[in-house]
Specification:
This protein is an all-alpha fold. The chain has two domains: 100 residues; 37 residues, no CATH class. The protein contains five helices and no strands. Helix 2 runs antiparallel to helix 3. It is elongated, with a radius of gyration of 36 Å. About 5% of the residues have low confidence.
Length: 149
């Protein structure tokens, strides 16, 4: 059971999917932090410069309100992302090293038959037919090209 679990985890697709999900969630945190910490206060500040909040339905602005740019939140999200990406890099590197230590047994491919091999076989069959050691019916079976299955 442990061996099957190890094979499942070492399969490339599962590991790639897990890494994609973790990196995606870490990147989502960066984008959320940028929007909440920098862009939203910037938009609030720019709109408060115009002084009139009547043009924006449902948006209450006060030019005297303090606008806070939260650079710490953005830097925190960037550092978290970099640490997460580095840890995942180390995990992938270790898994790749494990894969190289235990190479999967590849099935031996059948030897490729060349045109020369076919010609030699035909020559041998024709030679056997002319010497009489191979009956015509057996020769017809060898070269039967009908696809009745």
């Amino acid at each position: 059971m442990i061996k099957e679990f190890k094979e499942f985890i070492l399969r490339g697709n599962v590991l790639d999917l897990a890494i994609g999900v973790v990196i995606g969630s870490a990147f989502t945190a960066i984008v959320t932090s940028l929007v909440e910490g920098l862009l939203t206060p910037l938009v609030t500040w720019v709109l408060s410069l115009f002084g009139s909040s009547d043009a924006f339905a449902g948006l209450v602005l006060s030019p005297k309100e303090n606008v806070v740019f939260d650079f710490g939140q953005v830097i925190n999200a960037l550092i978290t992302f970099l640490i997460t990406a580095f840890v995942l890099f180390l995990i992938v590197k270790a898994v790749n090293k494990l894969r190289n230590l235990h190479p999967q047994e590849e099935e031996e491919a059948a030897p490729e038959i060349t045109a020369e091999d076919y010609l030699e076989e035909i020559r041998d069959l024709l030679k056997a037919q002319t010497t009489g050691s191979l009956p015509n019916e057996q020769l017809d079976q060898l070269f039967d090209t009908t696809t009745d299955k």
